[in-house]
Every structure is written in structure tokens, then in C-alpha cells.
Amino acid sequence: MSVRLQIMQALTAELAAIAPSAYTNTLAGHVYRGKPAFGYEQHGFAFVTMLEPSEVRDILAAEGFPDRRAGNWRLLLYGVTAGVSDHDNPTDAAYLLLADLQKCIATINKAGRVAGRTPRPLGGLVTGPIEQGRGVVLSPDKEDSRPTAVCVLPLDIPLIENLEKL
Which of 2, 78, 96, 140 qualifies as a FRET site for 166, CA 20 to 30 Å off? Predict the structure, then answer.
């Protein structure tokens, strides 16, 4: 099976575990892979979709292993808020969702640590810690057909793909 799909499935399970007490939002049943932002429809709940950016990124052959590719794989976590509940501060909910996503990724990285070894998060599927970009929050914008605030968190996921086992 594709290691990228396995990573996305494991990441889906981790993000779907975001729930109150440790987080602000509840994402159970609201994490998607490769599904566009649904035309920014208002669903009444926050959700996240994982997308690859449209730019092309090279993943090079792993040194000494021509049957493997190695490098960072860019993935975007795209969070859509439940709706505008605060008309004076419409991005507040998106900042809270972004913070939940950042905290979850930090927790994933921490769980992959073993003393004296390189961290291998997501059950060892990735070859090092998942790097988080700064993330960005976008305001609602009716001209762009975006009725709710959104956040985008870029991730760089280190991986090695064995081309003989795809």
C-alpha cells in the first residue's frame, strides 16, 4: 500500500481525536483526505481537509538506494470554521482551530520520540519529526465565496518510499 496514503490515514485518525478538554474544537467525523474545501459551504461544524499543494516538489532517490525515494512531502491542513459567530472578530475561531491543529501535530511528534533515537511519528511511518509551517488565517470573504474564516497549516513530512513495495 502507498506509504503516503498510510500516513494520511494515520494523520486522519490523530486529527479526528481532537476533542474538548485538551482542545477547543471537535473534529471526530470531520477530517477528510484530498477533498476540496466543499465550496466553503456552512456546515455548522468545523472540519479539516488534507490537500497537497499544486506546486510540484521533487522527492529524490535515497542515497545508495536507487529503489527508494526520500525527502519531505508537503501536505496542507486546511481548516474551515463552523461559521461566523463573532461578527466583530470573525477570525477568532480560525485561530483556535489553527492552535488545535498545531498542538495535535506537536503531540504526534512527541509520541514518536524514543530516547537516543530519531523520532518516528505516526507509528514509524515517517522518518523524522513532522515540521509545521507558521500557518495562516484567512477572514471570511464573500467575494471569494468564503463565508467562514479558515486556516491553513503547511506540514513537511519526512519519508522514504520503497518503490518496490508501492
Answer: 78
Q: Using N-to-C axis directions, what is the helix angle for 92-111 and 3-16, rounded to 10°?
A: 120
**Residue 86 pLDDT > 80:** no
**What single DSSP character describes residue 52?**
-
Nine cell digits for residue 158: 519526512
CB 100 within 8 A of CB 93: no
Separation of alpha carbons 97 and 150, rounded Å: 9
CA angle centred on 53, ends 154 and 13, rounded to 5°? 55
Angle (CA) 111 115 121, round 5°: 30
Residue 125 has pLDDT above 70, yes or no: yes
Residue 91 to residues 9, 51, 79, 88, Cα–Cα distance (Å): 29, 22, 12, 9
* 68 pLDDT tier (thresholds 50, 70, 90): confident
Nearest 5°: phi and psi at 136?
-140, 150
**26-61, pLDDT tens digit by residue?**
999 999 998 876 555 556 789 999 999 877 566 665
